[in-house]
Amino acid sequence: MSDSSRAINMVIAALGGEGGGVLTNWLIAVADQEGWLCQTTSLAGVAQRTGATIYYLEFIPRPEDGSQPVLSLFPSQGDIDIAVASEIAEAGRMLSRGFVSPEQTTLIASTHRVYGITEKSATGDGTIDPAMLSEMCARYARRFIQFDMLELVGRHNTVVSAALFGAIAGSEVLPFARETFERIIGEGRGADANRAAFNEAWDRAQSGGVGLFDPNDKGDSSGFVLPDAHTAQGRVLIERMRALPVMCHEVVYRGASRLIDYQDLAYAEDYLFLVEKLATALDSAGSVALTEAARYLALWMAFEDIPRVAQLKVRPDRQQAIRDEVRAEPEQPIRVTEFFHPRVEEIAAMLPKRFGERLLASETARSGLGRLLGPRKLRTDRLSVYLIMRVLARLRRFRRGTLGYAEERGMIDRWFGAVLWASARDPELALELAECGRMVKGYGATRARTTSRLMRILDTVDREAEVSPARIRQLREAAMEGEDSAPFEGALNQALA
């Protein structure tokens, strides 16, 4: 830097559990050993609801006369030398806040995604385009260093902060020796893993953030291939899948596997029967419609009810995933608190159809049961709660006789029947109706809203003598705009006009 007395300003955005505080402490220690002062301020976010925790650091050479310089507590727009984001969407937030300038800022970001609440809760596809974010970052930063740090640290069994530390050092914006960085990260617990991640991140930053070419990695050029079965029943299913168009093999295989886990083999055979029926009705021009219908059919048939939620909560791979995420030692006990909020409708859905209908029809029963229900925090690491979850999960064997299954299956059959009807007339119309399957998502009020809107679209199909693919696309897009019903009602009225 031309002016050695000028402070170097850094902003770091890190999500919870990614070691943002540890990274800050490492940088403070490096500055101290290099004879610099470092002042830090942090502003906590609420995970992805309001963004990551923001750490602001100012570095300045320690005055020879022993005086204490006055440094800023908050970052200033357009005056940031290094902006660091532990996830690419946070880099986009850096841009929107004005922390990144093309004249001054080196932007360092991991390209992996951690989806935000607004992305997950959107009725349609609410995800941010990472390619667009990367393009914007490259355009508005003086220098942009990006690579998948989550993948990197996963191979070294450490956390993102170690890779961020290496990328910061490798960018060489801070005038500190590499040996100092290595000495600091080589101390404490997990030093070997941290050092390995640091070294690889340093190399990536030195090369501008590009990936490293591995001549032995041939990639996946062959595409998906149906696996060999190990049982007689499995061989029958696989052979039925082989008879379907190659384009849909992976979707159908994943869908059938999900449904076997969700219910049983017969349920997966039921799914395959419906897919085969649609494949017979469609010619080669309808492969896309077949694939999309198979995708959303499998997802809808695996609708989440109380037995399914209980099954997912206590499965062994989930318990191990939690231990891996919090990096618990094999002998270290952990406490797992689950949040439940069952509604009367969900209790009725798991009852036999006749009893469930009676429960919902009785205001007295609904009111009394409603007072007993409500938000619950349950410790699934406790034996009593775990056993209750196991019992609830086993109730899935009775699922086909429940009210919830009857209601969901009725809507599934109506939607898939419309796709079959359209397949005999226009593959494009069949595709648009198949795409309506992605409207079904969420739970509670969201689930009721999305399925009711889909049923109203199907009402339009039943009512109109001629319905075009463009009309279905218009209704679907309006239905997926969110909770506000005005766009959808307007599109319906236009359809009726």
TrEMBL record:
Residues 249-459 form the DUF6537 domain. GO terms for molecular function: oxidoreductase activity, acting on the aldehyde or oxo group of donors. Residues 16-201 form the Pyruvate/ketoisovalerate oxidoreductase catalytic domain. It comes from Luminiphilus syltensis NOR5-1B. Keywords: Oxidoreductase, Pyruvate. InterPro entries: DUF6537, Pyrv/ketoisovalerate_OxRed_cat, Pyrv_flavodox_OxRed_cen. The gene is iorB. NCBIfam families: PRK08312.1. This is Indolepyruvate ferredoxin oxidoreductase beta subunit. The keyword Oxidoreductase applies. The keyword RNA-binding does not apply. Pfam families: DUF6537 (PF20169), POR (PF01558). The lineage of its organism: Bacteria, Pseudomonadati, Pseudomonadota, Gammaproteobacteria, Cellvibrionales.
